[in-house]
Design a protein that fits this description.
single chain, alpha/beta, Rossmann fold, 5 domains, 6-stranded parallel sheet, 35 helices, 50% helix, 11% strand
């Protein structure tokens, strides 16, 4: 159809509520309306969805949007239906989450012509009954969203995406628009070739997100660092990405224990839980979502203020797309990634057992991540260069390397040596191979090519292979070197590089970035140091003696008024932590040993008031550090809590996890010590005489000077079994002392 500018702008205003288009949106829409195939490379937040949603509403028939994630489909359909009252049939999705009745509604709306946009997963599209259904529908065009999934070099490759073109031919050819937020030249070439749209009009937007701050941090005590960062940015929304489901669960639990509202999100959760957790984040019931990479694609939340990568991503594309979820409203977006070379080694181990070709691709993508993480160059310049875009400013003033610049040197001699080596070889090789030759590292591959016999082998042995890796990488950012697209990763010298070799000039280069904590030994030492520090604080050796004395006096007065033993209010370790950390809020108070939510609310107000006054009067500078509350180290913890909630006998719980009763009681005591309350009345009342319960309970309430079990058994006498004392103590701690 011929584009009608008035109709286009009227639809933009009336349906989407916008007065004008962003960037190249209008040109893309006009091209698609004219029947042309289109390739759109537009960063996250650039407005890709509008490029196919608006034409779908105008054109005759139904636009078929092929999308990889159910969460993305639901989010987009909800948004479209919300734009205009009574538009419940304008958009649908068809996937495995729908029951038979819901599928019938979608089919009826499709066949009646009411549906303008249908979202489908590629797996859904391959089913025979769906192909037959779509053959009876007029397709206005095909939109392939997240098109990088087509390429094995893309960060989220899906084999089903490579079958899209034959499926399109089977249903009926119509214009194709392929859209992605991340695609190198190689990935772009793969997409166009696989979809059969090499003649498509190509629209590329700038990859620069000037409001994003990029930082790589050494992975030393990352949990503590993350909690400190979130505390310093109260009320802000953020995403924390972890590579494993287990780490997602652990991190979400750790954040909640430390007073930060967080939910997990990964493919191992059932669909209902995933949806609830996603909605809780979108509705700001929680500030932080901890997720695997499955979270965030297509999520329309513009005010995400930080994205943290607990684990290094597997590719630059993944990193760029995930960090791109921060600051989509153009305001603050902080992107922090924790890096340790040990994590890279773990990822390399995971590759073993995969097909050789797949391993080769994964290693190449991972090597780019290492180069980025270890570089001291402007991170924005590195990212944009990766996607084929030059950043012409000398620095961006918005990444760790620009804000805290590293020493620079004239690298013309080193660059000339790298160029000389590449030009001297009859074949082209990858960066790590070239770096090893220059550094004089004779691995098996180098020996197989007899490159250890070259005159230039070891010519740069005063530097490490990592140094030469960085030199070659910087050579690419200066366009002196380049990578071949078809044989991805092989390095060649450009015409500009040959001219530089003939007439070298000053070449500003930055010294290689060195990271601490990259060996097992270093990590162990860091962990031991952290544990030692925490132990010293817990022992009260570093507290404010005057404040500690005042806190103990307050505790004594409160105990007298409430007719409770002083330890029930707060134990000595809790007061010692207060004298170290000077907590001034309930959230800070909960980070002290032995202080759970209930205890903080029940007894904490007067202690906080006293500490605030003391800090003000004595002009105390409060420490930034804090004691990290960690959950009991037991994989059985969740099972035990859920089983007690279901009132299962303790014997059955122990048997199910291969524990004896002694071990189970230890686990339950750890759970209670972490601040969680458990109700064991159903078991205690059934297995212990009421008189015995009352006497033990009375002892802890009125006579005990601490909650020590050995002391209790000694005081109570031989008529009481240890497990009875422990069970009643748990009941007492949950009801009175927590």
């Amino acid at each position: 159809m011929t584009p009608d500018p008035n109709l286009i702008h009227k639809t933009l205003k009336e349906f989407f509520g916008y007065d004008s288009f962003k960037g190249e949106q209008e040109e893309i829409i006009n091209h698609l309306l004219s029947g042309g195939d289109t390739f759109v490379l537009m960063p996250t937040g650039g407005g890709k969805s509008l490029c196919y949603q608006l034409p779908a509403l105008i054109m005759e028939g139904t636009a078929l949007v092929i999308s990889p994630l159910i969460a993305l489909m639901k989010n987009q359909v909800d948004l479209l239906r919300g734009f205009e009252e009574g538009s419940g049939s304008v958009a649908h999705f068809l996937n495995s989450s729908l029951n038979r009745q819901q599928q019938e509604i979608v089919r009826a709306d499709l066949l009646s012509g009411q549906t303008k946009i249908l979202y489908v997963a590629p797996e859904t599209l391959t089913k025979e009954e769906n192909i037959d259904l779509l053959k009876g529908v007029r397709i206005s065009f095909y939109a392939i969203d997240e098109a990088h999934c087509i390429s094995e070099w893309g960060h989220d490759f899906r084999p089903e995406y490579r079958r899209i073109r034959p499926l399109v031919e089977g249903i009926g050819r119509a214009p194709i628009i392929a859209l992605t937020a991340t695609a190198t030249a190689k990935v772009q070439s793969d997409i166009l070739k696989n979809l059969g749209i090499q003649d498509a009009a190509i629209f590329k937007s700038s990859f620069n997100r000037p409001n994003l701050y990029y930082e790589i941090r050494d992975k030393v005590e990352p949990e503590k660092d993350i909690i400190r960062f979130i505390r310093q940015n109260p009320g802000k929304s953020g995403i924390i990405y972890c590579l494993s489901r287990k780490k997602v669960e652990e991190m979400a639990e750790l954040l909640n224990l430390n007073g930060i509202k967080a939910r997990p999100y990964h493919a191992g959760l059932d669909a209902k839980t995933r949806s609830e957790n996603q909605d809780a984040f979108l509705m700001e019931e929680v500030n932080v979502i901890v997720a695997t990479i499955a979270f965030g694609m297509g999520i329309d939340k513009p005010d995400i203020r930080f994205v943290i990568h607990y684990d290094i991503p597997k590719s630059i594309e993944s990193y760029y797309q995930e960090t791109g979820r921060a600051g989509r409203d153009g305001k603050e977006g902080i992107c922090i990634t924790y890096y340790s070379y040990k994590d890279i080694q773990k990822l390399e181990k995971f590759m073993q057992g995969k097909p050789i070709a797949e391993q080769e691709i994964s290693r190449q993508l991972l090597s780019e991540v290492v180069a980025y993480a270890e570089s001291s160059q402007c991170r924005r310049k590195l990212l944009l260069h990766y996607f084929g875009e030059d950043y012409l400013e000398p620095d961006c003033h918005c990444c760790d390397n620009c804000v805290h610049p590293k020493p620079v040197f004239d690298g013309k001699k080193e660059m000339c040596l790298a160029i000389e080596l590449i030009e001297s070889l009859p074949e082209h090789f990858k960066t790590d191979h070239l770096a090893n030759i220059l550094a004089g590292k004779a691995n098996a591959l180098i020996k197989s090519y007899k490159h250890d016999k070259l005159n230039l082998f070891g010519a740069g042995s005063e530097h490490t292979e990592k140094f030469w890796f960085t030199v070659i990488h910087q050579g690419m950012t200066y366009h002196l070197l380049d990578k071949e697209i078809e044989t991805y990763g092989l390095i060649h010298v450009t015409d500009r590089g040959r001219e530089f070799f003939r007439n070298p000039f000053y070449l500003k280069m930055v010294e290689d970035r060195l990271f601490s904590g990259n060996t097992d030994q270093d990590d162990d030492e860091d962990e031991e140091s952290a544990v030692a520090t925490a132990a010293m604080k817990a022992g009260g050796g570093a507290g404010d003696a005057a404040l500690l004395s005042m806190l103990k006096d307050l505790r004594k007065d409160m105990a007298r008024k409430l007719k409770l033993q002083p330890w029930i209010i707060f134990g000595d370790p809790s007061l010692e932590d207060m004298s170290i950390m000077y907590p001034e809020t309930f959230e800070e108070l909960k980070n002290c040993q032995g202080v759970g939510e209930g205890k903080a609310r029940k007894f904490g107000a007067e202690f906080i008031s006293l500490i605030k006054k003391y800090v003000e009067e004595n002009e105390i500078v409060r420490p930034d550090d804090f004691i990290l509350r960690t959950p009991p180290k037991s994989s059985d913890k969740q099972f035990i809590i859920q089983s007690i909630d279901r009132h299962l006998p303790l014997e059955d719980i122990a048997a199910a996890r291969g524990l004896d009763m002694e071990e189970l009681l230890g686990e339950i005591e750890s759970i209670v010590a972490s601040g969680l309350k458990l109700n064991l009345d159903y078991y205690i009342k059934k297995n212990i005489d009421e008189d015995i319960i009352e006497e033990i309970y009375d002892y802890f309430r009125n006579d005990a000077s601490s909650d020590d079990i050995a002391t209790a058994i000694s005081e109570l006498g031989p008529d009481y079994y240890e497990h009875e004392v422990r069970l009643v103590r748990i009941k007492f701690l949950c009801e009175i002392a927590s």
